Amino acid sequence: MISQIPLGHTDIHITPLILGTWQAGKRGWVGIDDEDIITAIQTALEQGITTIDTAEIYGDGYSEELVGKAIKNYRGQAVIATKVFANHLAYDQVLLACENSLKRLQIDVIDLYQIHWPSGSWKSPVIPIDETMSALVKLQEQGKIRAIGVSNFNLTQLKEAQPHGVISSLQPPYSLFWRVPERELIPYCVAQGISILAYSPLAQGLLTGKFSPDQQFPPEDVRSKNILFQGELYQRAQSALAQLRPIASAYQVSLGTLALAWLLHQPRTHAIIGVRNREQVLANLPAITLQLRAETLAAMDQISRSVNDLIPADALLWKF
Questions:
Q1: d(CA 22, CA 7)
Q2: Overall domain count for the chain
């Protein structure tokens, strides 16, 4: 049985691994099959990964629709997190976006409703955070959402939101090869009791070791914009992977399992895994129970520094 961990200070319990469904929306991804995604979601639920993360922007609602279809007979065990995008942060827009998400997901209440990007991102209108938060608190009072979270917020933005409602989670990009959140955000969240839902925990597949040193992605693949796949960062990542392989072999696990286990050893951290099919769900399960020794964690920390030392404190994972 997979352990259930409280979300923030709430009575909502989430799993160490969270099923991410950005790819289910298809936009920015290639080779995605609807039935494979539905089967993957149902497999995750059957295996005890109860928490599923989606967003209204993923394929303009298509991801939410697929999640809704997949969980139809599993609602009693599924914990659903979704997000309102940066262009819907005015009071009435938040309320409407939530209603639309509920319809697409075919549910009555969203367990965790998150601000996907801060106001002003992606050329969106600048809306005062108190206005957005007041709408989210209203949705809580109405029983349409259970908890509030934020995604892609920096520390200043997180602190600005907190006086206006209880923030239960932060969703940043975070992995062994992207440790930017450790500089400010994660210590603060740990002190505040805010859960960290790490997305891109395998650095969009880079940490699986499956990409060659000269890997090229088509323009329609979102990884073509990821700075970890470019220039010296990518070459340093390849060198680091070569040093991580003997560690994975010693534990008799894959590189991906090793990297996920490292992340799950970090305080208050959950890993959002994006999967295309049932096999990928099953392949990620061993990370939950893999216990890494202190000397292993220290070695992995040192290896990852060769990549992370090249990343500026204010860097963004993608150059869109």
A1: 21
A2: 1
Selection from 118, 169, 113 nearest residue 141 by Cα:
113
Among 31-40, 133-142, 211-220, which is the least confidently predicted range?
211-220
CATH of the domain at 126: 3.20.20.100
Tell me whether strands 17-20 and 51-53 are parallel, antiparallel or unpaired.
parallel
Angle at 50 between CA 244 and CA 73, to 5 degrees: 140
Rg (CA), the chain: 19
Residues with active-site annotation: 58
Q: In terms of residue numbers, what domain contains 84?
A: 5-205+257-291
Distance CA(283)–CA(163), nearest Å, equals: 41
Q: How many CB atoms lie within 10 A of CB 97?
A: 22
Q: Which residues are bridge partners to 282 per DSSP?
A: none
- Summarize pLDDT for 266-319 with one digit per residue, the tens: 999 999 999 999 999 999 999 999 999 999 999 999 999 999 999 998 899 988
pTM of the model as a whole: 0.96
- Contact (Cβ atoms closer than 8 angstroms) between residue 94 and residue 130: no
Q: What angle do CA 239, 242, 247 make, to 5 degrees?
A: 135
Assigned token pair, 4 = 């259930």
Instruction: Return the structure tokens found at 132.
Output: 């957005």
Sole residue written with tokens 């960062």 = 233
57 near 29, Cβ under 8 Å?
no
Check residue 28 and give its pLDDT: 72
Gap between the Cα atoms of 76 and 187, Å rounded: 34
